[in-house]
Amino acid sequence: MTDGRARSRRRALLAMARDLLPQMIAVRRDLHMNPELGCEERRTAGMIASKLCELGATVREGIAGTGVAGVVTGSGPGPCVALRADMDALPIEDRKDVDYRSRVPGVMHACGHDGHVAMLLGAAKLLSSLAGEFSGSVKLIFQPAEEGPGGAEPMLKEGVLSDPDVAAIVAAHLWPDLPTGVIAVRGGPVMAAADSIGITIRGEGGHGAAPHRSVDAVVVAAQAIMALQTIASRQVNPVDPVVLTIGTISGGYRHNVIADEVRMSGTLRTLNPALRRAVPDIIRRTLDGIARGAGATFEFTCSPGYPPLVNDERVAATVADSARKMLGKRHVIEDVEPSMGGEDFAYFLQEVPGAMFMLGAGNPDRGARYPAHHPRFDFDESAMAVGVALMVDVALELLERR
Ligand SMILES: [Zn+2]
Ligand SMILES: [Zn+2]
Questions:
Q1: Whole domain around residue 29: which residue ranges?
Q2: Is 88 tagged catalytic?
Q3: pTM summary value
Q4: How many domains does the chain contain in total?
Q5: Does residue 129 share a domain with residue 58?
Q6: Ion ligand 2 — residues with CB under 5 Å?
Q7: pLDDT digits (tens, 9 = 90+) for 360-388
Q8: CA distances from 238 to 242, 267, 305, 336 (A)
Q9: What is the Å distance from ligand 1's center to 173 Cα?
Q10: Does the annotation count 146 as an active-site position?
Q11: How confident is the model at residue 1 (pLDDT cuts 50, 70, 90)?
Q12: Is pLDDT at 172 greater than 90 in this prediction?
């Protein structure tokens, strides 16, 4: 495609996406008022499937429970590119003062997944109106349970990337930390592996007044927590990030009784896969030294969570290039720092090249000033127009390039 044609296509996409904005806002607000937790997205999935059917897309429902995929086919043969949205809400009480506040007590779309769904349906609409102008197909993937236990991996196991086979995949995450109209994207690792750890320290109980006749599990746990902090600071290469957070601790019976057992749980975050494999052994060795020194014993478990999210360099460059041309150079951030948060879009990126970009949606005048998972979280809805235009443009670019 010539530069001139690509330029006018981008302008047209932005204009079409802005025209679609009222419909996307209506969908988003409907979902916002009716949020559903992970694996329970039945109403959401039903709405998605019926809208995709109305557009004439080929729809597959019930993938990994509530997952939905729709395929919009172009006018000629060609590859298939996928766009992905997550659908689930969080167990958080909505504290916003807006008329589209959640109507479900204790459940809230506090991560913008309602907007992700609205944007992907907007993309489906744009693509079906452009079907005469591209070859190949675009698969729109709506996945359950991103916030846990994870819908991406089970959807992959049920073959969501085949028939037609997906060559590349792109996703956007609404990001109120960036202003509306700005996007951030880069190749390489951008989100962390998020593994869960469990530690039990066992000592010997006794009278609080006779510590010499017991092994105090509370004191051993305290030493263990501090020693674990030396993993990031002293035991691994400082240019490779590790976060080890002990999030819970419990043990003991009474103020004057020495505890025989303390249980702790935590999260282990890494970007580098080799380090991810190495750290559990370092934790075990550290715990072993502390426990042995005190005459205690320990148990340690590490349950793998989402893998690190690694953007493909070429697809990330395509997103950045498309965004620069559509939004202007100053609105594209490529030296963005990786986040130690986790995202199960990572599983898709282990199967096919792709990229996730952060879609700026911060706007204090519209109440979009709180971070994700905050009880007052909201995003600037006009950002959805930017997101849809960009996702569709990138999909068309990727179809043409392959
Ligand atoms: Zn989230
Ligand atoms: Zn999210």
A1: 3-191+308-401
A2: yes
A3: 0.91
A4: 2
A5: yes
A6: 111
A7: 999 999 989 999 999 999 999 999 999 99
A8: 9, 19, 23, 19
A9: 9
A10: yes
A11: low
A12: yes
